[in-house]
Amino acid sequence: MRMRALERKLLRDLGRLWAQALAIAAVLGCGVAVLIMALGVSDALDRSRAAYYERNAFADIFASVRRAPLTILPEIRALSGVRAAEARVSEFVVLDMPGRQRPATAQVVTLPEGRDTTLNRPTLTFGRLPNPDHPEEVVVGSSFGEAHGLRSGDTFAANIGGSRRELTVVGAALSPEFIYTIGPGSMMPDAASHGVIWMGQRAAEAAFNMTGAFDDLVLGLDMRTDERAVIEALDLILEPYGNYGVHGRAQQISHSFLDAEIEQLRVMAYVLPPVFLLITVFLVNMVIGRIVALERLEIGLLKATGYSDGAILAHYLLLAGLVAAVGIVLGSLGGTYLSRWMAGQFARFYEFPELIHSVSWTTHALAAIAGFAAATVGAVRAALSAARLPPAVAMAPAPPPHFNRGVIDRALDAVRMATPDLMIARSITRWPLRAATSLLGYALATSVLVASNFFPDSLDRIIDLAFDQSNRQDAILTFPSDVPDIAVEEIRKLPGVIQAEGNLSMAATLRHGHLEKDATLQGLSADADLARVVGENGVIAIPDRGLVLSDRLAETLEARTGDLIELDLPGHLADPVFVTVAAQVPQVLGLGAYMSPSAINAMLDRAPAVSAVNVTLAADEAAAFHAAVKTMPGLGGAILLADNRRSFEKTVAENIGAMTTIYILLGSAIAVGVAYNAARIQLSERARELASLRILGFGRGDVSWVLIGEAMILVVCAQPLGWWIGYQIAALMTRAFSSDLYVLPLVVQPATFAMASLVVILAAFGSVMLVRRRVDRLDLVAVMKSRE
Amino acid sequence: MFRTSALTKIYETGSVRVVALDAVDLTLNGGDLTVLLGPSGSGKSTLLNILGGLDHATSGQVWFRDLELTGLGDRALTRYRRDNVGFVFQFYNLVPSLTARENVRLITDIAPDPMSAEEALSLVGLSARLDHFPAQLSGGEQQRVAIARAVAKRPAVLLCDEPTGALDSKTGVQVLEVLDQVNREMGTTTVVITHNAMIQRMAHRVMHFADGRLVGDARITDRLAPSEVAW
Ligand SMILES: Nc1ncnc2c1ncn2[C@@H]1O[C@H](COP(=O)(O)OP(=O)(O)OP(=O)(O)O)[C@@H](O)[C@H]1O
Ligand SMILES: [Mg+2]
Questions:
Q1: What is the mean pLDDT of residues A534-556?
Q2: Class of CATH domain B30-56+83-228
Q3: Ligand 1 binding pocket includes B97 (Cβ within 6 Å)
């Protein structure tokens, strides 16, 4: 088929403008890629999770109780809306893994005997379920098994109720309950140090002294059942047996981490791509506007020969559309690649039997629509003006730009600038809108870099606050339930222990007016040296009376110092008590509520007790300490903070390395897109002027300066604005990313600002230098021969 | 002032070969006002551009005084233009973002011994238009600013390519008067390309070009004043 002339012109235009088109396409592509990655991955996680929950019957309600008889199960199953209920034994134990000097910990969960599990059904990755007649048989969590290279028939030891038991691996499994497995007190999953173990019901009842009883309950609800009604009913039923709390999926650890992750990705999809789309609008507007100005004569000719307004409009919109198409294709490819990479990252922390990798076509379609919309919005003004141009007017040359001497010029006279500088100043003051647009573009480029690179600064602060200042112990030894504080003395006697301090913590529900929040109440004595609460101005001593709340918790409850809080300590106190808020503290991890241990014990009307012991260790005696911990009776867990910190820092460093590279590319793409296009347009408008300067005897450097100088002045002036916008975006993101699990502190180091500016200024400089090569090659004779 | 030897310029565009200048030998004397005449495409602009250091010859040589232009690189040619040559084109080529005074300052800023911008503009009779932008000036006024810009550095030579081409006769005469005046008062060697054969009557010397060759060279003895030239 023969191409029509106008279509041919379209392709020629694109061929001639390829560098500018590519610079715009790159900016648009970045937006499309980020959109596809963020939406695609969050959607994939969401869908993978939903499918997994469905297939493996993930429970809706989770309850923990001190010890309840199995005889109450029929009553629970009879509650309206309850589809299924599984009573289980769930305990934390310390493990002695072969070939590992340090202890590991595990959560033991039981499986019913003689029938399939109706809720939270594990999916075996190899082997079989435990045989009820062989109490030593267990199934291990897949990642834990992998980290220790476990196969069917392997054995390891567990410290169960103070006695050492040999367990035999018969299989490994995944469970919707443990998509994300995190050890108590950890910040990151560490497969080797904490895992899940499934045991037969009878074996566990015997081992944990729970015959005929349970301490963990999961319920499945019918569709459209009011979760709160069931929770309230269950609360009442469990009350007599030491109810530690009943909650829905929202507070289930694995579920809530995944929720936070999905939410973060969504936030990213709503914050970053619009920046790129906005810049695409600017750039397309600038470039198509210039093309229409240059092609006035052609437009007049086309219209005079009978092309309709619509054809002209379509022609320029199509040109923008083609540029957008290139960007969308590039962005889709990049986004697909990024999604795959990101999904791979998630597969390291989130265990799915099947993680959906593919980005749905609706996401691609949405990204494409957004891309075309940006290009159309950018082009429509110029395209309309072309379509509306009456042929007679179009054929006459455009009136020369009008200059007037204004206030600024009188000011400039006073300075008596060199003439090329004057030309730069005039260009900026004559087209303030255009200069402002470029400036805003550079500022946005900087802001993207500031907003994305503040993460490392923020995480540094978390590490500093969480480890270096607040949790200075080397290890935490936990007990299954509170023990008399004499236990601290016993642990101090263990080999390698330098300091030992008691640590009291329990689940609590706090109420203020109609607001309610579950949190962990911690007892910290004023003279504690290892676990401390650190505020802006250093360590905060917990007062003898009253409650200290983390800022986030206080905010959630709308409580202030002096307010009365109703405190529920399920499993410890039958009736709520009222305590006054004594102080508030900023905090990065979790929802903290603190009291002095003596106040807690007095409130519970009991002798001093602890639920864990914090210790510092002598480095050379760590082996002896670890060996002792593995066999110490009555221990529920051992958290090694050094391990914790190492895995946190390692993961963070890896992720941040990759993300930083991506964001530098994104920021540079914007800077290049803006600088290159602005410079090319300037060159096309001023070629004649610049050639005149060369003829008059100005050197290449002087002449290029007229072009480069404007871009450089604008990019430098844009930096403070970019810092400010970036800081605002960072603030928005910290708020969106903060959850009950952690609060991202808003910390942006000067180095982050400096690095953002450096990248943007270099990218802009590189782009204008590319254009400078064209200035150097200006054909002086040809330019002078023609009228404008 | 200028001397050329077998000066040749060949344009090759694809398979087409155009000989714009065909072994031209000529000498231009200092202080003369020379008019170049010839049909369109005869090579006049090409010669002027090479003399002015805007273009490179294909072969042959050009000397400005003792300086061989044909041997110079880009940087040296820029320097040569800056120090010695003033250009006036048919399309005035003023910088639209600069006022008349500032357009002249473009030159006075970089020339070694310039006159002031005001002086140059008063020379062309535009003292009252110092702070006007090009868009606020008539064509003849714009061309006079261009001439002021060209002469402000007191150039040794002034090269004008159809300076009156875009002007009506009355304005054209004003421009010619300015050129004549500069030539007379400052002794500037001036070369003017024109299609208007009448203009030759005000020159010291007239050269005819055809097909890239110098086909006629005459001294004018009975010069007219510019105001007597009509077209
Ligand atoms: N850049 C170029 N590429 C190819 N040919 C060229 C180029 N510039 C000029 N020519 C050719 O060189 C020849 C001389 O051109 P030149 O511009 O010197 O003529 P001219 O005498 O100034 O004509 P006019 O009076 O119309 O301005 C012409 O035939 C022209 O077509
Ligand atoms: Mg010519």
A1: 83
A2: alpha beta
A3: no
Q: Mean of the per-residue pLDDT values for chain A?
A: 85
- What ipTM was predicted for this assembly? 0.73
Supply the DSSP string of A469-491, one letter for each residue: IIB--SEEEEEEEEEETHHHHHH
CA dihedral A608, A614, A619, A622 (to 10 degrees): 80
The reported pLDDT for the residue numbered A788 is 47
Last residue of a domain, one of A209, A232, A264: A209
The CA distance from A416 to the nearest CA of chain B, in Å, is 10
| B42, B51, B55, B214: residue to mutate for ligand 1 pocket, most atoms within 8 A of CB | B42
Ligand approaching nearest to the C-alpha of B209 = 1
Question: Does the distance separating the beta carbons of B81 and A696 come in below 8 Å?
Answer: yes
Q: Is the pLDDT of residue B119 over 50?
A: yes
What are the DSSP calls for A443-465, one per residue? Answer: HHHHHHHHHHHHHHHHHHHHHII
- Nearest alpha-carbon partner for B107 in B154, B143, B73: B154
Q: Mean per-residue pLDDT for A690-697?
A: 82
A268 against A712, higher pLDDT: A712
Task: Specify if A517 maps to a domain.
Answer: yes
Is residue A174 situated within a structural domain?
Answer: yes
Per DSSP, the three-state class of B10 is: strand
The CA B180 to ligand 2 mean position distance, Å, reads 21
| Torsion over CA: A761, A763, A766, A772 (sign) | negative
What does the DSSP 8-state code read for residue A95?
E
State pLDDT tens for residues B148-182: 888 888 889 999 988 887 777 777 887 888 888 88
- For residue B120, give how far its alpha carbon lies from the nearest alpha carbon of chain A (Å): 16
Q: How far apart are CA A286 and CA A264, in angstroms?
A: 34
Put simply, whether A421 touches B (Cβ < 8 Å) is: no
What tens digit of pLDDT does each residue of B54-92 get? 888 999 999 999 899 988 887 888 888 888 888 888 777
> Each residue of A608-664: pLDDT tens digit?
888 889 898 888 888 888 888 887 877 877 888 777 777 777 777 777 777 778 888
- Pairing state between β B189-193 and B157-161: parallel
Tell me which chain B residues have a C-beta less than 8 angstroms from the C-beta of A698: 78, 82, 106, 110
CA of A640 to the centre of ligand 1 (A): 86
Determine the Cα angle at A764 with ends A759 and A767, to 5°: 125
Q: Is the CB of B49 under 6 A from ligand 1?
A: no
Residue A506 lies in a domain: yes
Q: What are the boundaries of each domain within chain B? A: 30-56+83-228
Which of A422, A426, A688 is nearest residue B93 as measured by Cβ atoms?
A: A688
**Bridge-based pairing state of the strands A82-88 and A123-127:** unpaired
Which one has a higher pLDDT value, A170 or A275?
A170
Q: Is residue A278 part of a domain?
A: no
CA distances (Å), origin B10, targets A540, B14, B18, B69, B228: 88, 12, 6, 17, 39
Å between A418 CA and nearest CA of chain B: 7
The secondary structure of A613-662 as a DSSP string is: EEEEE-GGGHHHHHHHHHH-TT--EEEEHHHHHHHHHHHHHHHHHHHHHH
B120, B130 Cβ separation under 8 angstroms: no
| CB of B165 closer than 6 angstroms to any ligand 1 atom | no
Domain boundary among A624, A647, A670: A647
Which residue do the tokens 């810009």 mark?
A: B149
Query: What is the residue whose two structure tokens read 């800023």?
Result: B109
Number of domains within chain A: 2
Which residues, by Cβ under 5 Å, contact ligand 2, an ion?
B 45
Place of tokens 């592509």: A29
Q: Which residue has the tokens 């395209």?
A: A383
Put simply, the answer to whether B82 touches A697 (Cβ < 8 Å) is: yes
Domain range enclosing A566: 472-647
Ligand 1 atom nearest to B48, measured from its CA: 18
